[in-house]
Amino acid sequence: MPKAKLVLHTKYVDEQGGLVEMKVYDVPKAPTTPYGFKYSLVYIRKRQRLVGYDNHEHKGDHRHFHRATTPYVFTTMNRLIEDFRRDVAAVKKELER
After folding, report:
1. Are 80 and 74 in contact (CB under 8 A)?
2. Torsions phi, psi of 58, nearest 5?
3. Which residue blocks in the chain are alpha helix, DSSP H?
4. Mean pLDDT of 19-26
5. What pLDDT, on a 0 to 100 scale, did the predictor assign at position 32?
6. What pTM was computed for the model?
7. Measuring CA to CA, which residue among 2, 16, 26, 9 is closest to residue 88?
8. Above 70 in pLDDT, residue 23?
9. Three-state SS for 10?
């Protein structure tokens, strides 16, 4: 069985001290990964995950926003990253108030 291949890994601390980390792996297509990607995108601030997108094997594609977890409809990797960045910007704006 072919191994997962890391195709994207970005990790940095933003200007407010929040951790942004994006990991994407190219994996064999399977029922749990029909498009051939395994991903985890997360924004953590003060030890709390405020935003997250991942496709955990037992949960499928889903989004974490504050304490809520909702299904996520994956279309493309670019769209996923755009959605994640939009949510991170929204959370930062909320925290500035």
Report:
1. yes
2. -95, -10
3. 77-96
4. 97
5. 81
6. 0.91
7. 16
8. yes
9. strand
